[in-house]
């Protein structure tokens, strides 16, 4: 049986192609070598359904030699279109998955498959750092979905691993970083199209999952799901409920990092990239109420909506204030915004400079400038950043091209970890329930010692890092 035929969790094993691949390399120590143009890369996919399937569908020109997931019935559904038939865009992925060796536990995958060269990680947030660390310590190139990690300490750990292993090609899965429009945004802001920027507003329509609610009662899990492996490093066991898996985990504190962790990697990317503010020096979150059943002893879901105020006291061009809005909240309309301009509730970023304003949509798309002379200044800003082949849709392929030494990775951990840490500090401030002052050099909250425990987390036995 094949995965596309709804195979059981026990029967999908390696095909002939996977067997032929075994032992192709003498050992993982050589996995970090740059491949030559035209060489196929041996890839493992961890978190093969959902977003992992979307990412992996762009890697089918390589050798997907292993696929890891805790529920292969869910993976099979990820290959289908809305009509219940195979998605035409996933035919090649279905064939690749049918040939790949299957694992439910990525720890066993790493132990067994010594031919892997690169790993795509698209699990829930609480697994990201654990899987990425294991891969990088084995000399494997990694692509990790956003947010890069669940905690600030994990982000620092991956930054250090990347620094110590410069031959590893790393990429965070925020595809807007590869988009043509987003790169133009960076050029316009750096080129002075709206002058000096001291104020930024970013908003999203997330959450689009259950949030701001008390924990539901546990129910029987699907037979296809290994719930213990799904929990992995999470130090809680609430019992299974469909409000946690497979998509809704983002709203629950042990598993996801809420709307900011989800969409901040897109929306905060461009101000962090263009304005080079460094890490925030002060962060405060105001939010709707926690679900009373779960706070304060054991927070359950993140609050439904929030405002997070970031202050960047060490920004390259001078102090910057950035406000984040989620749960459908939006910034007030600036007085000088043209009456015909609509701030889309789906999400966007507004930059207010001393010579105008710039606004774009979630992935950096459709940038527009406003203000006297802003359009003329924008037209005069030259193109200075390289464009990524395929743009938004080329983010995964860019990672592969970088592994082959043909280009540079679009969003490597050297940059992504700063963006990631900024986002996560918003969640730390939310949990702290008070403003926090942050020393980025020391990775320490200086005015609330107890809040420093929120920079890390506890891990279940067998999943420590």
From TrEMBL:
<dbReference type="Pfam" id="PF19051">
    <property type="entry name" value="GFO_IDH_MocA_C2"/>
</dbReference>
<dbReference type="InterPro" id="IPR043906">
    <property type="entry name" value="Gfo/Idh/MocA_OxRdtase_bact_C"/>
</dbReference>
<feature type="domain" description="Gfo/Idh/MocA-like oxidoreductase bacterial type C-terminal">
    <location>
        <begin position="212"/>
        <end position="271"/>
    </location>
</feature>
<feature type="domain" description="Gfo/Idh/MocA-like oxidoreductase N-terminal">
    <location>
        <begin position="41"/>
        <end position="170"/>
    </location>
</feature>
<dbReference type="InterPro" id="IPR006311">
    <property type="entry name" value="TAT_signal"/>
</dbReference>
<dbReference type="InterPro" id="IPR000683">
    <property type="entry name" value="Gfo/Idh/MocA-like_OxRdtase_N"/>
</dbReference>
<dbReference type="InterPro" id="IPR036291">
    <property type="entry name" value="NAD(P)-bd_dom_sf"/>
</dbReference>
<dbReference type="InterPro" id="IPR050463">
    <property type="entry name" value="Gfo/Idh/MocA_oxidrdct_glycsds"/>
</dbReference>
<protein>
    <submittedName>
        <fullName>Gfo/Idh/MocA family oxidoreductase</fullName>
    </submittedName>
</protein>
<dbReference type="Pfam" id="PF01408">
    <property type="entry name" value="GFO_IDH_MocA"/>
</dbReference>
């Amino acid at each position: 049986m094949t995965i596309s035929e709804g195979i059981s969790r026990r029967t999908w094993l390696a095909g002939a192609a996977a067997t032929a691949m075994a032992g192709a390399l003498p050992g993982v120590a050589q996995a970090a070598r740059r491949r030559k143009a035209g060489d196929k890369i041996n890839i493992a996919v961890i978190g093969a359904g959902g977003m992992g399937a979307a990412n992996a569908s762009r890697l089918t020109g390589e050798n997907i030699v292993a696929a890891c997931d805790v529920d292969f019935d869910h993976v099979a559904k990820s290959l289908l279109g809305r009509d219940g038939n195979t998605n035409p865009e996933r035919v090649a992925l279905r064939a690749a998955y049918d040939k790949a060796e299957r694992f439910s536990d990525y720890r066993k995958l790493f132990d067994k498959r010594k031919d892997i060269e690169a790993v795509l990680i698209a699990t829930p947030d609480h697994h990201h750092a654990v899987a990425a660390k294991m891969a990088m310590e084995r000399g494997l190139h990694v692509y990790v979905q956003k947010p890069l990690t669940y905690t600030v300490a994990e982000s620092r750990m991956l930054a250090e691993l990347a620094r110590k292993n410069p031959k590893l090609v790393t990429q965070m899965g925020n595809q807007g970083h590869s988009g043509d429009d987003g790169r133009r945004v960076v050029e316009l802001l750096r080129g002075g199209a709206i002058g000096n920027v001291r104020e930024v507003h970013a908003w999203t329509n997330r959450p689009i999952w259950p949030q701001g609610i008390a924990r539901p009662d546990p129910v029987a899990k699907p037979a296809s799901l290994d719930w213990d492996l799904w929990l992995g490093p999470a130090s809680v066991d609430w019992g299974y409920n469909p409000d946690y898996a497979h998509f809704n985990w983002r709203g629950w504190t042990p598993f996801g990092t809420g709307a900011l962790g989800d969409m901040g990697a897109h929306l905060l990317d461009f101000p962090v990239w263009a304005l080079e503010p460094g890490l925030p020096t002060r962060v405060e979150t105001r939010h709707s109420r926690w679900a009373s059943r779960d706070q304060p002893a054991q927070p359950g879901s993140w609050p439904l909506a929030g405002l997070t105020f970031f202050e960047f006291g060490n920004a390259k061009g001078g102090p910057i204030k950035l406000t984040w809005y989620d749960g459908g909240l939006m910034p007030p309309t600036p007085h000088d915004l043209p009456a015909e301009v609509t701030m889309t509730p789906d999400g966007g970023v507004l930059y207010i400079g001393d010579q105008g304003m710039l606004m774009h949509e979630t992935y950096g798309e459709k940038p527009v400038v406003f203000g006297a002379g802003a359009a003329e200044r924008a037209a005069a800003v030259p193109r200075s950043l390289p464009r990524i082949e395929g743009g938004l849709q080329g983010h995964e392929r860019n990672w592969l091209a970088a592994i082959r030494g043909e280009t540079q990775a679009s969003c490597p951990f050297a940059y992504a970890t700063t963006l990631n840490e900024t986002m996560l500090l918003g969640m730390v401030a939310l949990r702290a329930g008070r403003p926090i002052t942050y020393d980025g050099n020391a990775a320490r909250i200086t005015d609330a010692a107890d809040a420093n425990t929120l920079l890390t987390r506890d891990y279940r036995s067998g999943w420590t890092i």
